[in-house]
Amino acid sequence: MRKREIIEVLGRVAKQKMLAISGLLSGAVVWGLIWYPYRLLADAGVPGALSSLLTYVVALALGLIFFHGAFRNIFQSGWLPILIGISAGWTNLAYVLAVIDGEIMRVLLLFYLSPFWTVILAHLLLREKPILAGYAVMALSLAGAIVMLWRPEFGLPLPQNRAEWLGLSAGLMFALSNVLARKAHSLDVQTKSVSVWVGVALLSLVPILWAPSGVAPLDVLAWSGWIWLLVIGVAIFCITLTVQFGLAHTPANQAIVIFLFELVVAAISSYLLAGEAMSTQEWMGGAMIVAASLFSGKLEKQHEETNENH
User: Fold this and answer.
1) Domains in the chain, number
2) What pTM, to 2 d.p., does this model score?
């Protein structure tokens, strides 16, 4: 291969890697902000399960328009897209319910215990074995989360109410969905994204069928509420595609570290939108998380070693 061709190949790889990381970071930003419109909808009388259902129906409708062939692929590609849909569905539904009812930063701390689950699941399902530097990066990110969010009055980061159990379970399923998305390398981004939208919509429908009275607020919902539902749905459509692209081109353990940037976004947004001031402790923890995200490229070695083994 000539020198010019090598440079072109390296350039394409670098561009793809940059797009993948940008997709994951954009997902972290959106999910660090999305708690606010969901809370506005809850204040307007729309329950979390119903708002999740409606916003993901918007994403599904857009998917039908642009990727109608992906719906057929879900049922022709084995169990992986179905498992991705179930795990991602619970992740998103539980996350929304948790941040509406619980303390957002406490919920996020329990949610971001997910790197521990990722290490285990990536080893079991992907045979990824992080090198020492990889563990160090994850330890730094988790240490940052603890420094940023830990409060003595709460004790150890263990669930103490329904919202916190939902946050913990969302983190576990988040790790599983990321690992499954990585494992399903033969599936295109559109099929994976449609799996997520279908999974969230179906799981959100369960509590609504259990308590149908929750649909009543839609009769009196103001136009601003409908606009929020539409905006969230479009945002979910776009961000699911970018995140699935990022997951397809990033090792699972590196992806989870990049996603930790959501904590920083959530802390800042809670200060600006809810008046929650950040302390010096929170700023220090946030800086550690950002540093871990910046150095997460060291985890790329494990992905290369895994590919070589295959």
Assistant:
1) 1
2) 0.80
d(CA 77, CA 186): 9
Say if 56 falls within a structural domain: yes
Check residues 64 and 297 and name the one with the higher pLDDT.
64
What are the tokens at 8? 């072109």
204-226 residue pLDDT tens: 999 888 888 777 778 788 899 99
Q: Which of 263, 240, 223, 213 is CA-nearest to residue 63?
A: 240
249's tokens: 């081109």
Q: How far apart are CA 153 and CA 156, in angstroms?
A: 9
- DSSP labels for 269-297? HHHHHH--PPPHHHHHHHHHHHHHHHTGG
The answer to whether residue 48 is domain-embedded is yes
The predicted pLDDT at position 227 comes to: 95
CA–CA separation, 64 vs 68, rounded Å?
4
- Whether 15 has a pLDDT exceeding 50, the answer reads yes
Angle (deg, nearest 10), helices 48-66 and 189-210: 150
Reply yes or no on whether the pLDDT at 306 is more than 50: no
How wide is the angle at C-alpha 20 spanned by C-alphas 16 and 24, nearest 5°? 170
CA 47, CA 37: separation in Å to the nearest integer? 12
* CB-based contact 24:241 (threshold 8 Å): no
**Please, what is the average pLDDT of the chain?**
81
Domain that holds residue 167: 24-309
- Residue 9 located in a structural domain: no
Q: How many CB atoms lie within 10 A of CB 76?
A: 8
Q: Taking Cα atoms as reference points, which of 301, 202, 201, 197 lies closest to residue 243? A: 197
Structure tokens at 288: 């550690």
The pLDDT of residue 2 is 62
60 contacts 53 by C-beta, under 8 angstroms:
no
Tell whether the model's pLDDT for residue 108 goes beyond 80: yes
